[in-house]
């Protein structure tokens, strides 16, 4: 059985758990992270020197970085086909989520939902604008595909984008009117595990 070190409130942990659910992979969630067991201890640092969740243990294999774990789990499945171009389309959106979209939501989310004092009002306002701009980019793309981020078929890219889209909607900011994103969320809501890992109580 897979062991996932992390906690459900973490968006990065939920990516991995949702991927497991979609692939019907049994797993055990071992509580680590803020409010659980402190990862900044030798036992955890031996698994991930960044002291971040999630970490995956699969027998003797240990992996960290949530999108990498999702790729590992979904390898050669319907969620991540082996075709070179098809896989590249999926992975480019996974990378966009990790590098572009995550950077945009951080000031607003950390301030408004996590109570951080790291960001001032101007940084939060700029972050909201940037976040909505990134979501508008996604909206235009989804309007072209008419379905999912990498085309007609649901993929692991939709897992990692999906939890981020849910976070955008759940954060108390002025949301841009994005009809293609709204339709996308409706499609995602019909996938197994969506309610559990993108529910209203898991921003």
From TrEMBL:
<dbReference type="InterPro" id="IPR036249">
    <property type="entry name" value="Thioredoxin-like_sf"/>
</dbReference>
<protein>
    <submittedName>
        <fullName>Glutathione S-transferase</fullName>
    </submittedName>
</protein>
<dbReference type="GO" id="GO:0016740">
    <property type="term" value="F:transferase activity"/>
</dbReference>
<dbReference type="Pfam" id="PF13410">
    <property type="entry name" value="GST_C_2"/>
</dbReference>
<dbReference type="InterPro" id="IPR010987">
    <property type="entry name" value="Glutathione-S-Trfase_C-like"/>
</dbReference>
<feature type="domain" description="GST N-terminal">
    <location>
        <begin position="1"/>
        <end position="81"/>
    </location>
</feature>
<dbReference type="InterPro" id="IPR040079">
    <property type="entry name" value="Glutathione_S-Trfase"/>
</dbReference>
<dbReference type="InterPro" id="IPR036282">
    <property type="entry name" value="Glutathione-S-Trfase_C_sf"/>
</dbReference>
<dbReference type="Pfam" id="PF13409">
    <property type="entry name" value="GST_N_2"/>
</dbReference>
<comment type="similarity">
    <text>Belongs to the GST superfamily.</text>
</comment>
<dbReference type="InterPro" id="IPR004045">
    <property type="entry name" value="Glutathione_S-Trfase_N"/>
</dbReference>
<feature type="domain" description="GST C-terminal">
    <location>
        <begin position="83"/>
        <end position="203"/>
    </location>
</feature>
<keyword id="KW-0808">Transferase</keyword>
